[in-house]
Write a structure and sequence with these properties.
The chain is of the alpha+beta class. It is 54% helix and 15% strand. The protein is built from 5 helices and 4 strands. β2 (64-67) and β3 (72-75) form a beta hairpin. It is globular and about 40 Å long.
Length: 105
């Protein structure tokens, strides 16, 4: 398989900025799943399943990490970069923040 085939197989993912931002901010100092869920519910009500999907995607793509012993999620350098992109896009766009979507991939 060559490099072009690998790029074709990589899927584009769309993440809601409000959910992603909330998760990343929660993970700045390390957070348990329940703490992330509580913060997310205060900002944007969503299901536990959606949160788990976002966490899995963010961990698998090195935006956050999960420390099994402490059972906490921590933001990684790529996550800080993504948070910066979210803030930049929020400031550039006049649209409603709830509609902002981040395209990754």
């Amino acid at each position: 398989m060559n490099q072009e085939d690998t790029r074709k197989k990589k899927e584009t993912t769309y993440l809601k900025a409000s959910i992603t931002e909330s998760i990343l901010l929660s993970c700045l100092n390390g957070s348990l799943f329940s703490e992330i869920e509580t913060r997310l519910q205060a900002i944007r009500p969503s299901s536990e399943l959606i949160l788990k999907e976002y966490l899995q995607y963010l961990v698998n793509n090195s935006f956050i990490s999960y420390h099994r012993i402490k059972k906490i999620y921590m933001v990684e350098p790529r996550g800080l970069e993504l948070l910066y992109i979210i803030y930049t896009q929020r400031n550039l766009r006049a649209q409603d923040y709830a509609d902002l979507v981040i395209k990754i991939g």
